[in-house]
Write a structure and sequence with these properties.
The complex is a heterodimer of chains A (about 280) and B (about 450). Chain A is built from eight helices and no strands. Chain A starts with a helix and ends in a 9-residue tail after the last helix. With about 450 residues, chain B is α+β, with helices and mostly antiparallel strands. The longest helix of chain B has 30 residues. Chain B is elongated, with a radius of gyration of 40 Å. Classes of the chains: A mainly alpha (about 280), B alpha+beta (about 450).
């Protein structure tokens, strides 16, 4: 019973869920949608168990640290957060078609972690030895996951809005999409969850930076990019009740916001220099 | 022909516009990217290695090398602040009035604005009896109502979470508070660094980007610096300085360990473990034994130092190293005997017999190996930081309230309709209307059955 076994199960479950959701779009069979949702639950359970086991394995090696210490661990935690946010959304809305646009994110991150990243458990360097690490990482990733769900809903909104405006018939893959109104609501609710989480993530990061380095803000590329995301979603929240910005433009802001989020998370580490470079 | 607006009104409308908010936020997001692509606050030499001179001039004139403090970025933040203040000032008084002086009586016009209303006729009861039932029901299932008797018509008004209306203003205010905290820190604080050699003291620190030191008003001594590694690897585990604070001849804190993530604060000035390095020559302890006589002495010598040995020879330390070709600490020694004959010895701490030659006149044992280090400390004073944390706290509280709480209001009118009693119910929520509808449908249904019972 090792964490890597359960990480494998997680990846397979997310993959199965993704395929089933796509089959659901074509077949419109409710049984398939139910099976897909079941696969997400199974993947989420395996993901949770795997993270817990990895935590224990680190302690067994003598490292008293939460499993949030390097890129591999953060990526699998991101996949976990996306599955959690998706399931919360599913619980409330039961709009299964959305899974086809959200679960692929969870799958892509899991498969990348498993095939492309170093899974070795390593002790923390002095800069990361702080309880702030846990609070900072958890809040940031829950925020990011909210934005992932919002992005999936926004893409669907952009696909469906044209048809609704033309009053087209419900043919093709977009046929079983939720209405634009519901997708807009999912988008908004997901950002309503993600935005305070991102704010908390930035604030805990600032508090930690102030505690460890004596400055809460130093315009480090990672900090700056998190602020860029914050600006984009703040614009989104105001666009929702501004004439001329409701609808398509707001949906695009949500998509752009998630692209910026991914860049903040990965692009900054892999392409730009800065204080978070140890996160690789 | 539309009347031309006077310029002040036009400016006010400009700053009250939500479109301005969106455009400013997008501009802030887009321009912020520049500073993450172009490294900030480097020397001209570094930039010239990377860019051609004409590119450098262009970027420099646009202040792209310190863009977060450039006039245009600060101007954007200024517009953002003005926009935020103007929007809040415009809307706040209306909300304040709605909360503190709510409409206690609902006329038909008001009922028409609600998406969700209900009418009911009750037979065989007086207005007072029906009113009493409504009052009790509201109190038990929603909130204590305010009763207004208007010529025999009873108006009930009840509300919940009226403070939810202020969440958005608290959030807006929190951003301004954070800005104020940042300005206080910029005006009355500083960021500096100081290197202190083990065993020495410093009472001055050097601010970033300036040559003039700042006097601390007290003294900090570094008693010891150490770095430890995870077993069997070169992954650092801990950097630690033992610091002693002396103020006016009094020892305030003695040998206080300062590690990364655990700084030392005294009189509002905080010292953070930041870097370290070796300084000066290493000192070694040696035990030297003259083979001929068996006489043994203990020595403490620095690199380059020449000392006498028993039997008239002299010893000089040529070279010392913490890790001599992976054999651990080692020293190269030169011995010159009374006749002036030179011979060299390599002494390894972990392998004492490594260099014992048959013709050697001395045997050496390498003892303690002491390299002095300096510790590099970041020094920060920021009197604005608590203002920033206050702003952050208000931002979280404000946005939670703004996003997740809603001001719910219910009006009930009880009046005579012929010989019966008419009851009209209406309600609204300032956000999450669908959630309110669910509650309100249930509320109306139960109130109706309560009234006929």
């Amino acid at each position: 019973m090792t964490s890597s076994l359960f990480f494998n199960i997680t990846t397979i479950a997310y993959f199965a869920a993704m395929v089933l959701f796509i089959i659901y779009l074509v077949s419109r069979s409710r049984a398939v949608a139910l099976a897909a949702t079941g696969a997400v639950w199974a993947g989420f359970a395996a993901n949770t168990l795997a993270i817990g086991l990895r935590w224990r394995e680190a302690y067994a090696l003598g490292f008293e640290q939460a499993p949030l210490s390097n890129l591999y661990e953060s990526v699998v935690f991101f996949a976990w957060s996306i599955a959690l946010c998706y399931l919360l959304m599913d619980f409330k809305y039961k709009q299964r078609a959305v899974g086809a646009f959200v679960i692929p994110f969870a799958f892509i991150f899991m498969i990348w972690a498993q095939l492309g990243l170093n899974a070795q458990i390593q002790p923390l360097v002095p800069a990361l030895q702080s309880n702030w690490l846990t609070y900072h990482v958890i809040t940031c990733f829950l925020g990011y996951a909210g934005f992932a769900v919002a992005c999936g809903a926004s893409i669907m909104y952009l696909l469906v809005i044209g048809r609704e405006e033309r009053k087209g018939d419900k043919q093709g893959l977009t046929g079983i999409f939720p209405s634009a109104k519901v997708l807009d609501d999912i988008n908004y609710k997901a950002i309503m969850f993600g935005f305070p989480m991102l704010s908390l993530g930035i604030i805990t990061g600032a508090a930690w930076a102030n505690y460890a380095w004596g400055t809460y803000w130093s315009w480090d590329p990672k900090e700056t990019w998190s602020l860029i995301i914050w600006f984009i979603y703040a614009a989104f929240l105001h666009a929702r009740f501004t004439r001329g910005w409701v609808g398509r433009k707001a949906a695009w802001l949500s998509v752009i916001g998630f692209v910026a989020t991914i860049f903040c998370y990965l692009g900054v580490n892999l392409l730009l220099a800065g204080l978070h470079s140890y996160g690789s | 022909m539309p009347a031309k607006k006077n310029p002040i009104d036009a400016l006010w409308d400009f700053f009250c516009s939500l479109k301005l908010t969106i455009v400013t936020l997008i501009l802030l997001a887009a321009t912020s990217i520049i500073g993450t692509v172009i490294q900030q606050n480097r020397s001209p030499e570094e930039y010239l290695q990377r860019y051609t001179e004409s590119t450098y001039r262009l970027l420099d004139s646009l202040q792209f090398f310190d863009m977060y403090h450039s006039w245009w970025f600060l101007a954007l933040l200024g517009i953002f602040s003005l926009n935020l203040i103007a929007c809040s000032l415009k809307r706040f008084p209306l909300v304040w009035k709605a909360v503190t002086q709510p409409r206690l009586t609902a006329d038909d016009a008001l009922f028409q604005t609600f998406a969700n209303t209900e009418e009911q006729l009750v037979k065989g009861k007086s207005i007072e009896q029906v009113g009493e039932k409504v009052s009790v029901y509201l109190r038990q299932h929603f909130a204590a109502p305010v009763l207004t008797d208007q010529d025999g018509t009873l108006h009930f008004f009840a509300q919940k979470m009226r403070y939810a209306r202020f969440g958005v203003y608290v959030t807006h205010l929190s951003i301004l508070i954070i800005f104020v905290g940042a300005i206080i820190g910029n005006l009355w604080g500083y960021k500096a660094f100081v290197n202190i050699v083990e065993g020495t003291s410093e009472s001055r620190v050097w601010p970033r980007g300036s040559n003039a030191p700042i006097d601390l008003g007290f003294t900090v001594r570094c008693d010891e610096f150490s770095v430890s590694f995870y077993e069997g690897s070169n992954r650092p585990k801990e950097f630690k300085s033992l610091l002693t604070v002396i103020d006016g001849g009094q020892v305030i804190e003695e040998r206080r360990p300062v590690i990364v993530n655990d700084p030392l604060t005294y009189k509002g000035i905080t010292f953070y473990q930041s870097s370290y390095g070796p300084t000066g020559d290493a000192q070694i302890r040696l035990q030297a034994t003259a083979v001929a006589t068996g006489e043994t002495i203990d020595l403490a010598v620095r690199q380059g130092q020449r000392v006498g040995l028993p039997g008239g020879s002299t010893l000089r330390v040529l070279n010392v190293s913490q890790s001599y070709q992976n054999f651990g600490p080692g020293a190269q020694l030169e011995v010159v005997d009374a006749e002036g004959k030179r011979s060299t010895y390599l002494v390894l701490q972990k392998f004492p017999g490594f260099d014992s030659r048959r013709d050697a006149a001395y045997r050496f044992v390498l003892g303690d190996f002491k390299q002095r280090y300096y510790t590099g400390l970041q020094v920060a004073k920021d009197p604005g930081v608590w203002v920033v944390w206050l702003g952050c706290f208000l931002m979280i509280v404000g946005s939670m309230v703004a996003f997740f709480m809603s001001h719910r209001r219910i009006w009930v009118r009880v009046e005579a309709v012929g010989d019966q009693v008419g009851v009209k119910i209406g309600g609204s929520a300032h956000r999450n209307q669908p959630g309110f509808e669910l509650f309100f449908d249930e509320f109306k249904k139960n109130l109706k059955s309560e009234l006929v019972s």
